[in-house]
Write a structure and sequence with these properties.
Among the domains are: about 25-145 and about 590-635 and about 645-670, HUPs (Rossmann fold, 3-Layer(aba) Sandwich), CATH 3.40.50.620; about 290-495, Valyl/Leucyl/Isoleucyl-tRNA synthetase, editing domain (Isoleucyl-tRNA Synthetase, domain 2, Alpha-Beta Complex), CATH 3.90.740; about 755-870, Isoleucyl-tRNA Synthetase, Domain 1 (Orthogonal Bundle); about 875-935, Ubiquitin-like (UB roll) (Roll). The protein is about 30% helix and about 20% strand. The chain is built from 28 helices and 33 strands. Strands 24, 25, 26, 27, 28 and 29 form a 6-stranded mixed β-sheet that branches. A 4-stranded parallel β-sheet has the order 2-1-22-23, with helices on both faces. A hairpin with a 4-residue loop joins strand 5 (about 215-225) and strand 6. Helix 1 packs across helix 26, helix 20 packs across helix 21 (about 730-740) and helix 25 (about 830-840) packs antiparallel against helix 26. It starts with 9 loop residues before the first helix and ends with a strand.
Amino acid sequence: MSEPAHRYDAALANEIEPRWQERWEAEQTFRAPNPAGVLAEPGHPRSGAPKKFVMDMFPYPSGAGLHVGHPLGYIATDAYSRYLRMAGYNVLHPMGYDAFGLPTEQYAIATGRQPAEITAENIDRYRAQLKRLGMGYDTRREFATTDPDYFKWTQWIFLQVFNSYYDTEADRARPIEVLIGEFESGARPTPDGRAWSELSAVERRRIVDGHRLAYVTEAPVNWCPGLGTVLSNEEVTAEGRSERGNFPVYTRTLKQWMMRITAYADRLLSDLDDLDWSDSLKSMQRNWIGKSTGAYADFATYAGDLRVFTTRPDTLFGATYMVLAPEHELVDALTAETWPAGVPAAWTGGHDTPAAAVAAYRAQAAAKTDVERQADAKVKTGVFTGGYAANPVNGEQIPVFIADYVLAGYGTGAIMAVPAHDERDFAFARAFDIPIRQVVSGGEEWDGEAAYTDNVNGVLVNSDFLNGLKVPEAKERIAAWLVEHRRGEAATTFRLRDWLFSRQRYWGEPFPIVYDETGLPVALTEDHLPVELPHMDDFSPKTFDPEDADTAPEPPLGRAKDWVEVELDLGDGPKTYTRELNTMPNWAGSSWYELRYTDPQAADRPADPANESYWLGPQDAQDVGGVDLYIGGVEHAVLHLLYARFWQKVLFDLGHVSSREPFRRLFNQGYISAYAYTDARGVYVPADEVTERDGEYYYEGEKVSREYGKIGKSLKNVVTPDGVCAEYGADTFRVYEMSMGPLADSKPWETRAIVGSQRFLQRLWRNVVDEETGEVTVTDDAPAEATLRELHKTIAGVREDYEQLRMNTAVAKLITLNNHLTGLDAVPREAAEALVLMVAPVAPHIAEELWARLGHEGGIAYADFPVVDERYLVEDTLTYPVQINGKVRGRIEVSADADEATVRAAALAEEKVAANLAGKDVKKVIVVAGKLVSIVAK
């Protein structure tokens, strides 16, 4: 028996869908009009309407293309945008590509090709896949971070950061010229007190460079020999390895570009309260920023003051030793020539001199990752420097050690150790036989077997003028004492470190910086932007043995000699300069792309202020501004989101943008998992080549084990949307992904379940079109009362679900209404058209086709979304489940205004209830108004 000629199946879907996609593209259906500039369109159907800016975390286009997990968020934002457009909003829904970075460079090196060529191919593939899925993007706003017209402005923003400093009194960034003016006028003293006019030009530049928000410094950094580059803290895993490649990472002191993100730590923290983000995501940022309150205390040594930060200044009288990071700047000066008399052998590390002990220990520490150094090892390690420091509160001389659990990049790189009240200090003191002095008491005699760490209820003892005070009071008293005696100050510190901004790679944005004969950085002027990468046949970085920490990066751009040396006129005549050899991290381009989407064709600035304020500006005095909805993975909670917030705040301070936050509402979609299979060795095998026999799974004839895992190349369980679309159609794929479960939840992929979504669309098609003739079969008869009630209940529910991103329950409601219409003798046009309109956000191609066949011109994208008629939401009758001794035995339907006696009588008379009560004594009948009837019988 042949299939009906006009049945909705994969063949028909694959004929309908490309046709509508071509029409959308030709008519630029999803363009969003700007209020100003070349993208302003006064005649657009949504010109002047309220706006909504909906945005995805844009993809990094790899050669593998999209798998079925990638489009989950994209389909959700597309459905949401389509709904908003139909609901009357001017909707900006763009897409771009994050294209600089390590993966493409590594692939280019492996294949001998140019990364620009590979990037273009990968973007073409992603673009085609997204188009195949029916995404409604404003394609006029598309860009890649590798486009010169885009990264020109990435470089321009870097220069805004470079040419700024943080004014702590004004609590904002200001142009560097303001700082220079303060030095020139004498309003701000120079570090050594000399007049500004007495300093040489180089001295002045060094002072100014030390205040910039982007600066070059010798700093402890995360050096990854296996990748040949340094990494930011956020790119290092909790195990102390590179996020990409899983290579070991070591701490090295190197000259690098840094961004002074720490200046914004308080604002980054406090402004989280005003964002519509999940509590869990806010907590991740708060923890990363890591605000701590306490005090700085200065311990005097013959080599200078050792400053420590402590959250427990109340325990200063209990400090019996100090520990420095092996890299601390005063270690060499503190290291004695000979061991002091009576030094325990455990303190010397078995060496004849302090210098030998320190050198050996430093070498040992350098071979460890930061994570390994901070781990709570059973055996505490360290060596005595031979030097002593004076406790500021009592003058006691206490020994100074170095130990690898103290890191140079955290705090001051030095700690005061109070072993009686810190577990780690306690373990170290026990290992090295260092005195332990109790200074906080819990009221009972301390047994000395473990540190006492109560920092709220304890009372100070053995602490001179602090004795008898509770810990909170003691903290305040000692902080004031330190200030009064000029031995410290109350302070707030943060776990957040400045953003390491250099990468020793080729495929990244070049810095708009050159160096003159002094070796100091010089900013390029805007007319020299963009700085483009030179063409290089060999751009591979020099990598090293991953275990060899004693190496240093060698940027590949150093080999482009003709590019490195350049003659420029930067305002004081032609001079020869040397370019910066590092490139920016791939995070640079994604730190501001929401701004460029608002005005991608602006040639003289990142965006016209009128367009920026329209799309991103705050809506009222309390609003922080930003994108109205931003969807992406929770894996970017720290890296991308923290960096983007920092850049936004700098631009806000300098008056370039109107909003102080880039993303006012953020939603993290879940992951899609799929079956993965491992052989007897535990090695993953290609999932699509596994066969099932009698409940067992086989690969190349060998039995394999099955598990669930996040879809990806590593588990070899990739499922591409291309194959699913070919077999079922894009609309079926979209409906299936949206109906799998709550958007925020991770969920399993099951190809066999897709057919359910296809059957829904087939029934929808049959409710409008005759499968045999292709004719529209709806009638112009008015819908019956029951149909109108079902219809408007669906409209109310689906509107709310779309607005709250509950796509799965919206689809469920549409299926229920569709099934109701399927059961009618004839489908009323009024109900059919409303259903098609509601389906359009999730299944746009079939909706467009049915809308056109129903006689409408102009497409469905700007058709008005159905509006609920409240009359049909009022229930005339209520259904009560009837329980007997706790079990439901029947149901009754009564008038919504029926009194309790009427409901009771109807329940007892119900046929099934009456049968169950036969021969029983009814003890009680309880009517819960509008809910249920409960009968107790024996």
